[in-house]
Design brief:
two-stranded antiparallel sheet, 68% helix, single chain, globular
């Protein structure tokens, strides 16, 4: 996770902070980095939206150049060696600091994933499995060898859990490692957030495991339990909306998630949080809650609404129409031209709409079982629609 994406909705001040940290790193000013690191780690401070600065600002500031247009660079790029040399130099200058050692282990882990890629197992080239596991093993060994010192930083457990998802963790089960992590750092949110990956159905988990995780996180943080419960499902929804929808249907837990968002906003009333709460309410078809939240939203702010794969204001305008009970007018506009006047874009829009309707019909069937490929067709048609709109100059 990187500062440029994590903090899109937290405005320029957060991006400026991350850019400053990244610049100090490139310039080799490790003493200044250590001062910032110590401040973040010792104060356990949070951003205006309520997430941990240590993870989401400090550790998110270093490896931007490993990605290009959201895709990881080649595992044979010289950039990997450049980072390795910088981190080893930092570690030599500050031999008792966890930061460069944790970053080095993370670099090794990401290098492994650069070989593997982020797709399903059947998409990985046979020759890439060996270097993938070699780098994961090196990352695990690097992290384990510095535990006595580096586990003074809660991020150590986040990285250990990340590695354990694919490479295991010696003689400790994933659940036991999670218990150990939360016993020592119960209020460090990224521990729970990274664990959602392990319990997603596409990686061998299920909705019951995710519900158990959300409830476990809430129990470990009594003062803001419902808020953290909502945040766990927030992470799930961003990763796999189909699983989120299935969880809501299975556990009928929208009311608790809604209460959690209300608690989040009461403590951290950022525009980013309000916008996301409104979107969640809209997605849950809770018109009253959506309308109430839109009273606090003055206008469309791209950074608050256009995350992930949608950059066209869709979420805002759809949910605004829902809040104002103007869905008929909204859909009439879409039925007429797909939101634009270009005939090719209009055709692609209707192909996408047909695929989406088929998807909705499928997941709402009484005998539906989770299918990781359920969204493939409508996402493909959506991509074609967006490309056509972009080519026509509408996005």
């Amino acid at each position: 996770m990187f500062c440029t994406s994590v903090f899109a909705g937290e405005r320029e001040d957060k991006l400026q902070t991350c850019t400053s940290i990244n610049t100090l790193y490139k310039q080799g000013k490790y003493s200044e980095l250590e001062k910032i690191y110590q401040q973040y780690r010792d104060n356990s401070s949070r951003t205006p939206s309520g997430v941990d600065r240590l993870s989401q600002e400090f550790y998110a500031s270093f490896f931007w150049d490993l990605y290009k247009e959201d895709l990881m660079i080649s595992p044979k790029s010289p950039i990997w060696n450049k980072h390795e040399k910088s981190l080893k130099k930092w570690g030599a200058e500050f031999p008792s600091s966890p930061a460069p050692r944790l970053l080095y282990a993370e670099l090794l882990r990401q290098h492994g994933w650069a070989y593997r890629g982020g797709g399903y197992n059947d998409t990985v080239k046979t020759e890439n499995w060996t270097p993938f596991y070699q780098y994961i093993s090196r990352a695990k060994q690097s992290l384990s060898s510095t535990k006595l010192m580096s586990a003074q930083d809660p991020q150590w457990y986040v990285q250990a859990l990340d590695i354990a998802k694919t490479g295991g963790w010696y003689n400790v089960t994933y659940d036991d490692l999670l218990v150990e992590a939360t016993k020592k750092y119960p209020g460090y949110y990224p521990i729970y957030f990274t664990a959602t990956q392990h319990y997603l159905p596409k990686w061998g988990g299920d909705t019951q495991a995710l519900e158990k995780l959300a409830s476990f996180a809430a129990d470990k943080n009594k003062s803001d339990g419902d808020a953290l419960y909502a945040r766990v499902y927030w992470v799930v929804k961003e990763d796999d909306i189909d699983v989120y929808d299935l969880s809501i249907k299975t556990f009928n837990n929208w009311d608790r998630i809604k209460k959690g968002f209300n608690d989040i906003i009461a403590k951290y009333p950022s525009e980013w949080n309000i916008a996301h709460a409104a979107y969640f309410a809209c997605h849950a078809k809770d018109q009253a809650e959506t309308a109430q939240l839109f009273k606090r939203i003055e206008s469309y702010v791209k950074e608050d609404w256009d995350w992930s794969d949608r950059k066209d204001g869709y979420r805002y305008y759809y949910c605004k129409a829902f809040a104002e009970n103007k869905m008929d007018e909204y859909f009439q506009t879409l039925r007429e031209d797909g939101g634009v006047g270009d005939p090719i874009t209009k055709q692609k829009y209707h192909e996408y709409l047909d695929a989406y309707k088929a998807y909705v019909k499928k997941i709402n069937a009484p005998n539906y079982k989770y299918d990781p490929h359920a969204t493939d067709e409508f996402k493909k048609k959506n991509d074609e629609y967006k490309k056509a709109a972009h080519a026509a100059g509408f996005q």
